[in-house]
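Dear H.,

Thanks for agreeing to be a second pair of eyes. The structure we're designing against is below in token form, covering all 668 positions.
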């Protein structure tokens, strides 16, 4: 960049504009890497400064007492800023505080926090100090305005260089998405694009059309995990040596202190593995339970060539185990081959590699096919454009496609639901992006791993659906097992609410402002250029015509059913205190005269869903007959119809169990 810019920062007594006060302002004027001038000034507040702020900033309160008020330096500060583009880190706060003092800004504003979340998707944090560390920028006086303003300047220049080094085609795609965001830096990207295009157009003009996605290849281990044939037990001496003073743990962590409870737990885990026993451990805070189960489990898995699955309650702990604890274990075992033998032979060097894999539910992985489809849309909401932009720039560096690597704000997380892997949109091996699919890549890598880290929700969902997402295993460690019952209730139970049921019906057909949408309006696109004959098209149209009134009937019945249920529950609670609107359906409740009306209303829902499921089944049969008729997006259409049919059946059956008290079939 060759234009003059100004980076700024303020320090204040708090975060609430109009209440808290500015105590320091600073700015750095620069062109490219050249600093042209600086401005820094303490500002005397009207009220006392909180002690924690003084400690955080290191500002001397005596110096504040002799500093000028803001109205005495505001004009000079405004003149320094001029009309130059302003740069700040989370700059909206700084500008809000300055506006509260009567300042006005009409120039471009660039936020390095926004830019970093877009351009640096995998850094651990986006605080200014964290970005300074990432770029190896000296940051000696954190939370002093002039230092922070200058660090912001340097971070900005690094981010600009990252934009400038993009290929023209990628930059054009970034600019197209940026134009649809509400980010303040979108004109900066447009300026960089214009500059690059003027010099590179003749070189790259023929390469501008097409898919420019470049994925980073993953290091995939080939083949299945194979047993070593070594069935010898892990000895207590091996575990003792791992935790001993001067042992692998001690050498790896300078603050390591041997804890008897940790060694005792590790020995109990070792014994449980050796004897194929079940073990229940209650480990107090400070025990170091992760290492106490990871080390014996890893040694056992390596020695025998068998898989151990570790399940955690939360995805955060799952990520911590995989990204922090397991790499420590891998390093310690690789450096301690003498501790891994069984007394008769030692491990070969290639056998010392403990292979681990993180495995999450489908919704955590980006779906390349869905992402490409949304990326091609011309009109996006600002939050969708921001999420897509972050994902687009992340794809070149990620090997996992795991949403945890992205910082998505609350509204951007809603956009993720349009581009992640879902059961009802995943066509598996028939997908054109199957080879590169992040979800199936993780599954393949799990097949080769000694240790697979999952969470309770995935563990139980996989068992319930028998989906075999988790590869076959004989050894399971359940961390935070006290949460397992609650997760089991969520995963193995059933719940339905009005919005979910209405969304299902809208996915089949809805008409708003005379614009139809849903399966029954969109299937025709698949038939339009296909080889289906007129009779087959007529069958599809007739099924659609039959379904539309059934959907409307089910929609009316849904409203009626939930309305009656809400009235009944409110009446039963009779103004009970609190916000708990749950009602247990006992025989006494079901025996009340009013409950008969509830059953009648939900019987109407059930009958409508039965008819809808029947028609969708016929639609599925028709599509099976047309497999070779070149229907557009045939696999996606078939999967959609099958999922809708399955949902209608599941809800109808569960309504019978919950509302109508139909008996479940016995196991015998």
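And this is the sequence the design step returned. I haven't edited it by hand at all.
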């Amino acid at each position: 960049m060759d234009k003059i810019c100004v980076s700024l920062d303020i320090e204040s007594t708090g975060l609430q504009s109009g209440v808290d006060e500015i105590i320091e302002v600073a700015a750095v004027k620069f062109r490219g890497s050249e600093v042209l001038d600086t401005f820094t000034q303490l500002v005397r507040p009207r009220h006392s400064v909180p002690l924690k702020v003084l400690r955080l900033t290191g500002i001397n309160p005596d110096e504040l007492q002799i500093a000028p008020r803001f109205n005495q330096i505001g004009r000079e500060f405004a003149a320094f800023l001029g009309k130059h583009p302003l740069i700040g880190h989370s700059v909206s706060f700084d500008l809000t505080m300055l506006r509260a003092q009567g300042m006005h800004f009409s120039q471009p504003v660039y936020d390095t926090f926004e830019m970093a979340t877009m351009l640096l998707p995998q850094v651990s944090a986006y605080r200014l100090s964290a970005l300074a560390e990432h770029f190896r920028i000296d940051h000696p006086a954190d939370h002093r305005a002039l230092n922070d303003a200058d660090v912001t300047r340097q971070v900005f220049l690094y981010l600009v260089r990252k934009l400038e080094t993009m290929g023209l085609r990628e930059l054009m795609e970034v600019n197209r998405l940026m134009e649809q965001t509400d980010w303040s830096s979108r004109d900066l990207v447009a300026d960089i694009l214009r500059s690059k295009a003027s010099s590179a157009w003749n070189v790259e003009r023929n390469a501008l059309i097409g898919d420019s996605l470049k994925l980073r290849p993953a290091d995939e281990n080939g083949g299945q995990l194979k047993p070593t044939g070594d069935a010898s037990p892990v000895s207590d001496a091996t575990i003792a040596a791992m935790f001993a003073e001067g042992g692998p743990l001690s050498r790896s962590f300078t603050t390591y202190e041997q804890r008897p409870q940790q060694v005792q737990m590790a020995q109990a885990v070792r014994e449980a593995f050796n004897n194929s026993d079940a073990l229940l451990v209650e480990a107090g805070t400070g025990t170091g339970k992760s290492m106490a189960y990871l080390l014996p489990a890893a040694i056992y898995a390596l020695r025998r060539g068998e898989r151990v699955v570790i399940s955690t309650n939360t995805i955060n702990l799952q990520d911590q185990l995989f990204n922090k604890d397991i790499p420590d274990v891998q390093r310690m075992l690789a450096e301690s081959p003498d501790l891994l033998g069984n007394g008769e032979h030692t491990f070969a060097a290639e056998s010392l590699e403990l292979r681990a894999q993180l495995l999450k539910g489908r919704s955590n992985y980006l779906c390349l096919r869905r992402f490409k489809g949304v990326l091609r849309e011309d009109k996006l909401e600002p939050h969708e454009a921001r999420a897509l932009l972050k994902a687009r720039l992340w794809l070149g560096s990620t090997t996992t496609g795991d949403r945890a690597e992205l910082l998505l704000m609350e509204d951007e997380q809603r956009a993720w639901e349009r581009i992640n892997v879902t059961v009802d949109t995943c066509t598996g091996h028939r997908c054109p992006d199957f080879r590169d699919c992040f979800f199936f890549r993780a599954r393949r890598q799990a097949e080769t791993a000694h240790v697979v880290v999952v969470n309770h929700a995935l563990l139980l969902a996989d068992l319930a659906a028998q989906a075999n997402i988790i590869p076959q295993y004989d050894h399971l460690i359940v961390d935070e097992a006290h949460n397992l019952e609650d997760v089991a209730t969520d995963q193995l139970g059933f719940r339905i609410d009005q919005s979910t049921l209405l969304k299902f019906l809208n996915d089949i057909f809805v008409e708003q402002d005379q614009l139809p949408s849903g399966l029954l309006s969109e299937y025709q696109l698949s038939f339009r250029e296909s080889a289906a004959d007129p009779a087959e098209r007529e069958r599809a149209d007739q099924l659609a015509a039959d379904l539309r009134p059934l959907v409307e009937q089910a929609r009316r019945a849904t409203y009626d059913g939930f309305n009656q249920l809400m009235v009944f529950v409110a009446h039963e609670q009779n103004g009970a205190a609190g916000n708990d609107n749950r009602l247990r359906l006992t025989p006494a409740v079901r025996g009340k005269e009013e409950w008969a009306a509830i059953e009648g209303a939900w019987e109407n829902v059930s009958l409508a869903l039965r008819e809808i499921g029947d028609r969708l089944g016929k639609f599925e049969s028709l599509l099976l007959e047309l497999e070779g008729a070149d229907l557009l997006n045939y696999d996606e259409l078939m999967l959609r119809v099958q999922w809708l049919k399955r949902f209608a059946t599941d809800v109808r059956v569960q309504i019978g169990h919950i509302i109508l008290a139909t008996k479940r079939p016995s196991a015998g």
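Two observations from my side: Confidence is low (pLDDT under 50) at residues 201-210. The first helix runs from residue 51 to 57.

Warmly,
E.
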